[in-house]
Amino acid sequence: MDLQWNPIEIEYKDITQNKNSLEKIITGDSPALIIRNFYNNDSCKTISKRIEIRAFESNKKMKKIGVSLVSFISRKAEYFTQADALRKTVRQVFSGLEDPRKKIHKTLEVFFPGKQVTIAVETGKKYACGVIRLHELGDFAPIHRDNASFEARNFDVSKFPIQLSTVLYIQQSQKGGELVLHKKSWKKSDEKFRNIDFGYSKDVISDCNQSVKIKPNQGDLVIINPIYYHEILPVRANRRITLGLFLAFSKHGEKVVTWS
Amino acid sequence: MDIIWGNVGKVLSGQIFELNVTHKKDGNKNDYSEIEKINIIQTDIMSLPVDPKECTKEQIEENLGGTFVKCEIKDKENDGTLTSVVSHSGQGGY
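^ inputs. structure came back:
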């Protein structure tokens, strides 16, 4: 691990003094921006409890609540139908609490003064806003990248030149579940390293000599540039729950759009 | 049904491309070489016309060039070209 490629850490209360910190994430000079104490810990616990009840009631093993575009790359109409169908379900998880998605939007307004931050809309249809992911004991995510511009070319969000990923830690696993960020960005020729089901083989980062392992706390918000390869190590105790939301924009455009 | 995966290489026409094979389904009935010729008979790739016969070589190059795809093999033509259903792969529902 190279110590020089370190995440930027700021306290939520200090974001107005750190408005320029996202630039280093966009350029890849830093692997991640960690905004400490972004979301209330008690609210995180309430959300975790609600998800636990929902998971217990569900017959099949629940891995996520909400819709992610990547699951619908060849099924655009279905993506928008599901996004609408599950909007209420996701909202219910946050009911009576400060909606973390709105808080993320407000925070992005601080980082992008003069730009309007909205949920992405395409031909009158709203994109999904937020996917809650559950990583149970043993679960992990292999090396992957999330930038939508290559496969998701049918979706308008793929046309934005700059994309970032925000992840709110609703519950952190007691052991394992670390996020490992690799200082290597995706290029088309890497496609030969694909896994059949998801992600890439380790060979894709064989020429990468800088990686960093982070384990944010409950309530922290992490912003990464998802074109850089990253992975989640296996969860070794209890459950890891996160809320993910992508954002995209162009340098001179007026809007920042979000989706999941 | 046999399934192979890989990256789209040289595009030969609006329906036919070379696949650089990286993965093969366990239990495939036939063996496959490192490069196979694929004739698209059906695809779910949204940026391509629903009827593969309407595809141009340029469309295949632009939309499939280099991508990782799954080929479900339906038949083998006399010259060895594999008629296949072609779809995006590697998303895994994440």
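The beta strands of chain B are 3-11, 16-24, 35-43, 68-76, 82-88. The domain at 3-88 of chain B is CATH 2.40.50.90 (OB fold (Dihydrolipoamide Acetyltransferase, E2P)).
thumbs up if we can close this ticket
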